[in-house]
Amino acid sequence: MHKETLAIHAGYERDGQKSMAVPIYMTTAFAFESAEHAASLFALEREGNIYTRIGNPTTEVLEARFAALEGGVGALATASGMAAITYALLNLCQAGDNIVVANQLYGGSVTLVTHTLKRLGIEGRTFDLHNPEELESKIDEKTRAIFFESITNPSIDVPDFQSLVAIANRHGIITITDNTVATPILCNPLELGVDVVVHSTSKYTTGQGLALGGIIVEGASAKEKLQSQRYPHFNEPDPSYHGLIYTQTPYPPFTLRARLSLLRDMGAAPSPFNSWLFIQGLEHLPLRIRQHSQSALTIAKWLAQHPKVQRVHYPLLPDDPNYPNATKYLKGGASGLLSFEVASFEEAKRIANSVTLFARVVNIGDSKSIITHPASTTHQQLSPEELLAAGVKPGLIRLSIGLEHPQDLIADLEQALSA
Ligand SMILES: *Cc1c(COP(=O)(O)O)cnc(C)c1O
């Protein structure tokens, strides 16, 4: 079926009440019919609900719908995008292991890898997204994951999936792609050979900045890699779950372990109410993301001809270095993020202060358009050298294009640029 149809129907069968909208099961726990029933649920002999930290019927609809949209075999929803990324990585590695991640990465993922995981004894190695040879040079027998984004935030790059996946497959390493900016509508990393997809559902999923959430989607290809010697903990009995061997059940092993081990013990489970909000948002995500993309392209083209603008970054501008990858790997748009450079730090700050329709916010993926001047906000603590390494020039401005009429947004930028 098509994405538009899956976004509305996948994962939900009307219950006894025939509720058209997915019901919110706002409950912590579920009653067992008997002690034997409880035992069979815990032993995975029967499917059913136990406790909302491990699973919830409303959240289950969200998980099934995301899995359908991404073409995955299983999914696990979490309380935030960072929780999804943390669990996806911790599912694969332990102290003494390493992961190889792109330089061009969301700020929270950078600090997770370089500080928090480092304190747990997990080494983060970095590679330039556009340099596959560098990726291969960082891999060794202790590498458990390769992590990159499909449209990077904030640098707005698109990787060459084919060459990165080929290297990962040669070494039998699980690839994880953060598909937050592209959404499952514009890019399907699993179809491109990636093994696991993660999302922050806090962004385009509701598209209105309503709630924090995240999700992990497992591709069919993950299981074969997990069965290798690189991932012994998927092939040996787990003493914390009465000797369960994750690759020897009928369930998708990556999702199963993330749920039964990590979500059980670390507990960043989503609220059923938030899952319900994401289900509502998914219904019209296909419509919205096309409009975000179309408006962003219109505004990118307008900015590109403005005398005060030195450079515009948007993957579907034909002279953008990401154009070949964007036309190859993205379907029908490049989402709502773009950035542009003006002459100086002061000029960029002045523009960010002069807009009236754009909100000054450090978020993306909202129906309301957003402007960010990274050098004076998110990246303020970095030295000029560090800023350049992070691809953040002093005069760089990032826009998240919302769903207002693009001509009104252009009028606001025009008055701000000429103020
Ligand atoms: C926002 C974001 C995250 C983090 O998600 P939260 O839901 O805020 O925890 C991760 N990756 C990308 C690309 C993001 O934009």
Structure report:
This protein has 419 residues and is an alpha/beta fold. It has helices at 3-9, 35-42, 57-70, 81-90, 107-119, 132-138, 161-171, 183-186, 222-226, 253-266, 272-304, 323-329, 345-354, 384-389, 406-418; strands spanning 74-78, 98-102, 123-127, 143-149, 174-178, 196-200, 214-218, 311-313, 337-341, 359-360, 370-372, 396-400. It folds into 2 domains: 3-280, Aspartate Aminotransferase, domain 2; 285-418, Aspartate Aminotransferase, domain 1 (Alpha-Beta Complex), CATH 3.90.1150.10. Helices cover 39% and strands 13% of the residues. The strands form 2 sheets. It has a 7-stranded mixed sheet with strand order 1-7-6-5-4-2-3, with helices on both faces. The longest helix is centred in the last third of the chain and has 33 residues, at 272-304. The protein is globular and about 75 Å long. It starts with a helix and ends with a helix. The model has no long low-confidence stretch (mean pLDDT 96). Pyridoxal-5'-phosphate is lined by residues 80-82, 106, 108, 149, 153, 178, 180-181, 200, 202-203, 212, 214, 364.
Write a concise synopsis of the structure shown:
With 419 residues, this protein is of the alpha/beta class. It is built from 15 helices and 12 strands. Strand 4, helix 7 and strand 5 form a beta-alpha-beta unit.
